[in-house]
Design a protein that fits this description.
Number of strands: 13
Mean pLDDT: 83
Keywords: Ribonucleoprotein, Ribosomal protein, RNA-binding, rRNA-binding
Shape: elongated
Protein name: Ribosomal protein L25
Low-confidence stretches: 1-34, 259-263
Number of helices: 6
Order of helices and strands: HHEHEEHHEEEEHEEEEEE
Largest sheet: 6 strands, mixed, barrel
Pfam families: Ribosomal_L25p, Ribosomal_TL5_C
Strand order of the largest sheet: 1-3-2-6-5-4
Structural class: alpha+beta
InterPro entries: Rbsml_bL25/Gln-tRNA_synth_N, Ribosomal_bL25/Gln-tRNA_synth, Ribosomal_bL25_b-dom, Ribosomal_bL25_C, Ribosomal_L25_dom, Ribosomal_uL5_bac-type
Distance between the termini: 74 Å
Length: 266
């Protein structure tokens, strides 16, 4: 039986009493443009008009197992041009939930961070392939889709010190700080009048189904006038994403510029 055929009251009751897997699948229940209801059992997909991950950066991150942790071990790994890393499950992973110590290639992580930028690197899913060694024909121990959860850079040199990855199967919902991309400055009426853009947020946290993690969110400035603001609730995102901020938090606003001959009254 399809859930979309049930009356709303019965559907709500059913979802509240189902196990976690059904609850996650229920995130697919959202209206289409023709007001029909999407099949809740179907995989979630990106919708037309929303940003898609750039296939240019669809790279498999290579890794090898690491037997031990600690400062001395990590230091030796970095001297070998490897980044000490961890991959774990979402729920209590840092407490030992299917945690695996690994090392990844410094050059590969550095390249991806430089190409994407730190915030965009932390909001993109990658395939992680753990091999017995970095030799091409070595045994594949595990291949899994992951989200870079934490990235630790050296404060002085920006050298990559540590990376933490989280496994991201289709059943997972991930808390992600999604980067914002501001567009429409050239037609923004407030900017044309001499106002300036006051950016308050560069990222916004959402609970995202793993199959439709947005690479970024567009912020449209094309109709913003002096004194107006955009709130997080105004952002256009996939209906299956859940906002994890208060809805009235501001993203940006336009402040009027002081005229050259205007002076502060004393």
């Amino acid at each position: 039986m399809m859930l979309r055929r049930l009356p709303p009251r019965i559907l709500s009751s059913l979802l509240l009493h189902q196990p976690r897997q059904l609850h996650l699948a229920a995130a697919a229940i959202y209206p289409r443009e023709d007001n029909s209801i999407c099949d809740p059992w179907a995989p979630l997909e990106y919708l037309e008009g929303f940003p898609l991950p750039d296939p240019k950066y669809a790279e498999t991150i290579l890794a090898i197992p690491r037997a031990k942790s600690g400062k001395n071990i990590s230091s030796k790994e970095r001297k070998l041009e490897r980044v000490p890393s961890i991959v774990f499950e979402q729920e209590k992973g840092e407490e030992g939930g299917n945690k695996r110590l690994i090392s990844v290639k410094t050059k590969q992580i550095r390249k991806l961070v430089d190409q994407l930028g730190r915030s965009f690197f932390l909001s993109r899913l990658f395939d992680l392939e753990i091999r017995s060694s970095f030799v091409d024909e070595s045994e594949v121990i595990e291949k899994v889709r992951v989200l870079p959860r934490k990235l630790h850079l050296h404060s002085g040199t920006d050298a990559v010190l540590n990376v933490t990855f989280m496994r991201a199967p289709s059943t997972a919902s991930l808390k992600i700080d999604v980067p914002l991309v501001f567009r429409g400055e050239d037609t923004c009426p407030g900017l044309r009048k001499g106002a300036y853009l006051n950016t308050i947020k560069r990222t916004v946290k959402y609970l995202c189904p793993a199959d439709i993690v947005p690479p970024y969110i567009d912020v449209d400035l094309s109709e913003l006038d002096v004194g107006q603001k955009i709130l997080v609730k105004d952002l256009r995102v996939h209906p299956a994403l859940k906002l994890l901020h208060p809805q009235d938090q501001p993203v940006c606003n336009l402040r009027g510029a002081r005229a050259p001959d205007q002076k502060k009254s004393k």
